[in-house]
Every structure is written in C-alpha cells, then in structure tokens.
Amino acid sequence: EYCVIGAGPGGLQMAYFLEKAARDYLVFEKGYGAGTFYEKYPIHRKLISINKVFTGKTNKEFNFRHDWNSLISHDESLVIPKYSQDFFPPADTLVQYLNDFATKLNLKIQYNSTMHDVMKREDKLFQMWDQHDNVYTCKYVIIATGIAKPNDIKFPGSELTVGYEDLTTAIEPYEGKNVWILGRGNSAYETAQHILGVTNFIAMMAKGRNRLAWATHYVGDLRAVNNDLLDNYQLKSLDGLFEGLLFNLMIKKIDGRSLGDVTVLNLKRSNLTGRIYTLEPGSDRDTIPGGKHLKRFETDPTRRGFDHVIRCLGFKFDDSVFHPSIKLRKSGKLTSTGKYPYISPMYESLDVPHLFFAGTNTHSLDHRKSAGGFIHGYRYTVRTLHRILEWRNHGVQWPAVKFNNPLDLLPNILKRINEASDIYQMFSEICDVIIYDENKISSKYLAGFPCSLVSLLPVVSGHEVKGPVMVLVMEYGKNFSGVGKDVFSENRAAGDPREGHRASLLHPVLYFYKELFTPSDYVKKHRQWILPVPDTLVSLIEEFTTKFDAERTHVLMIRRFIEDSLGVDTRHWFADQCLKISLTTSNIPLGCQQ
C-alpha cells in the first residue's frame, strides 16, 4: 500500500510509524544500508546538530529538546546520547545509529534497490522499477530521498573549480595556498574551518551578507561552530569575505539564459603563475599580473589569484527518480528550479495526488522559519504526515486527550509548555490545539498539530469542532529575529509578566477563538502572525532555562487567561467554602461542582 523511497532519517521515521500501525509498506534504499548520505556528508565528518547529554533532567521528552539527532521510537536505547557524548557527534556515529534503528525495530527495508521511472497509471496506482527491472506497484508513494543533489552551476572557467561533493579531508593540498570559496552556507564555512590553519588566505564570496543562526534563530544559517573565518576577517588575519557575482551568475542560470551569451564570472589559469584569476567577460582585461588591467581590478579581492577555487553552493531535490510523465514543480518564485518540491501543507505533491514527501524535502513549508529541514524538526513533521494519512486512509482520528473540565486542563498545558519537544523544536509551525464543547467545559487536547492546518481541523484530524478553540504555540518575538538584528542588546529579555507581548526569546503564546477561524482567515493573516488575530491572547515572558512554571509569572497568567476566555472560575475551593457558596448563591464555581 505504501512505498517509501529512501532509508535516511526521514524514511526510517516514516517506516517506524507505518510499522507500529501495522500498515502494508516497503522502504526502498539504493545503498547497502541506512543513512548512506551521512557516510559521505558532511565531508569533514563533524555534525553541527546538538547532542546535549546532560540537561539536569531525566524526562525523556524534555531531553529530546536538546537531542537533535535521534528519531522517535519506543526503544529508549535508540537515542544518540547512548552512542556518543560529543556535543557535535561524528557523522559515522549517526550512520551506526540509523542502521541500528532499522535493524532493532525490524523495519521493512529493501536495500540495494535503485528505483526509477516512478509513474502513475490510469488506474491511479503508482508503478516503478528497480535496477534489475523488477516492477513494483503501490497505492501511495512517499519520497524521503532528502536534498542530496549538489547545485552544479556552470560558467566559463567552472572546470577550474572543485565542488564540495568532491572534496576530501586532506589538508596538505591547501598548505601555503590561496583559496577562493564560492558560497557562504554551512558547507562553505565547514570547508574553511577545516583548512584555514594551513592556507595563505581564504576569500569567500556569495550573493549576500552572512546569515548568522544566533540572529535569525534558524539552525540552517551559519552556526558558530564553523565561523572562525569571521574572527580572522574582523581581526585582520588575512581571510575575508566579499559580495557579488554569484547572485548574478545564479540568476542567469535560473532564467535559462545561455552562459555563452551572458557571462558574469570568467575564470582563467595563468601559465606564468599557475594560479586562477578573474577575467572580464568579452574582454582581454583580467587580474593576471602583467595583464591588461581595468582600474576596478586594482582593488579587486580576487587580484591575488587563487590556487584552488571551491564551489560550496548547496544542494537541491533530485527528481530523476520520476518517469517523464510526472512533472513536478519546485517551491519558490521560480517553480522550475527551486530547491524543494512544491507541496501542500499536508506534505502532498500539488501536481500528483497520493504522492507524498517526508523528511528534509518538505522544508519548503517552513524554510528559514523553523527546523523542518533537520532531524530534530522533521521527526515531528513525519509523524504529522503519518497521522494525516491514518485519518485520511484508515479512519484513525488524531490522538487526543479528553478533559472533563478546565481545572484538569491547566496541568496538561503546563506539562506541554515545559516538556514537549515537538512544539519546542518546530516552533511557530506545530501547535497544540484544544477543542472545547459548546458549554466551554469539557475539551479535547490535540498535541503536535500543524499550525497551518488548524482551520481545517475536522478534515485533517477527524474531530468535530462545535465550540471555542484554544491554540498553544511556541514563538520568538515578532521583530526579534533577522539578519543583522542585535539579539544581545541589554533590553533583549522582558522581565515583567505584564510585558509578555515584548518577549523576544522562545516563549509560549496562547490564542483563543470563540469559533474556529476559516482557511480564508488564515490566508489573509499578517505574514508575521502565526495564526489569525484571536479573540483573546496571552504571551508569557521568556525564561532562558525554558522552565515556564513560576507561580505568578506563568501559572497564574495561564489560569486567568483560561478564566477570561471561557468565562469560568477555575479556582480550587475547600469543602466549607463550597458549602457557604452553595447556601448563598446559585452560581456554583467548577471547583465546587467537582
């Protein structure tokens, strides 16, 4: 029934949920084992995903907040901290872990199977072949092949460059050499970090300024673990950055225009020095010593020439697994050349029904907003996809906990705020939803629900909505994150409970709607808002240890918010107080009714 292509972390996570639900599925993996992507990448073998072994807590869910490499399972031995105590583990550890995950959980995986020509037949079933021309038929296909195809941008002189994918860990070739790195993502800085101790100098070029993860709060931006080159640049130690050229070069490539007609960057090797220099397009002027110079080349960052030019231009989705009859658009402004497949918030192709995606290739939905492109994020989006499929294909409702009154609800909200990893890691993207009955007394608590699908709650979850809805979201401050933001300013953190609206760091926000908002309301919301403007809202102030349990600052704020939103009294009463109230008024509080 389900064909999953790819046995990386995303494919394994989906296989786990399908196995647990006793569904008919098979995972196809072209490699001889699980997670073969990580046998090669990252090239320099150190992960930048956090493995914080010591948190001061024994709660598994809380500790998962700081374990960015493990997948979800019932086996408590299958977590990366059992394999390594390194804060940034070696990639080989992840490979071992993924293979153990597949083996110990008895996941149905067929290795050494290179699938091709995935197509949809007239009877709406999918058909595909392996390299031995064995034919497979499936009702649903889930692509979990990751973003593994290097961006290989061609331009005159590109044959003189080497791609990140072709690098080795050897540093000897760079000793005493001038190195030019094209690109400014984590792979570029990882490469620079590995060789900067032996080079003459490193010049790094990209289309725009640095995106620092601590400023953008996006883990896919430049991480501090690899940014020693920035120190060297600002502390006058020869390495440096400059902008330009690459953006134009990429635009010409994206627009499909011939690089022979419009060239932005030419490279040429000098027979005299053996180094690589820039050449002005359509001219014999260049930066080669003794050549015909333009004035602008006199201060050009490339005028010294380079012994090595390295392309670190990122990766994109590889759609070569599909038959030509399946034409998939890509996400982004240019749908033919984007990085990710074009999908709906339900992780389904917008071009081919019943074709789904899992893992990092669903990151278009939260790119540069949350962690959906990384294991600690997509382990939850894969679970979300599975739950969507369970209701859609098998009539299994979204898991929910029922509460008979708001008094019992408050402890659960506090537990989720202080322990839950899904809403913590997939902040602003995955929410908790509370559905109240018409009387605003009993409720259902749906954990880990996609924020973008709340307006379609009955359709996606199988739960009716007849009363008000409350949504719990973890958010950063609306104007706190961004390139160039001063996230270390003295007034960065709010301290007064009444100033929760000024909270900057990650903090809980509760939205209350008297009735469920519509998909149209969601589309029309302000782009900075996670959800449409609610009837009432409370934003709790941040706490750098992320323990939102202060009696007045957090607990009392939530209780009063519930009371104000529902119009009920959630206080607890002693028996003698309840007796007195019952003798003097007909308005008996919930605490006494219990």
UniProtKB/TrEMBL annotation:
Q: Which GO terms describe its biological process?
A: ERAD pathway
On whether Secreted is a keyword of this UniProt record, the answer is no
Please give the superkingdom of this protein's source.
Answer: Eukaryota
Q: Does the keyword Oxidoreductase apply?
A: yes
CC terms in the record's Gene Ontology section: endoplasmic reticulum lumen
User: Which keywords are on file for this protein?
Assistant: Oxidoreductase
A molecular function annotated in GO for this UniProt entry is: flavin adenine dinucleotide binding
Name used for this protein in its record: FAD/NAD(P)-binding domain-containing protein
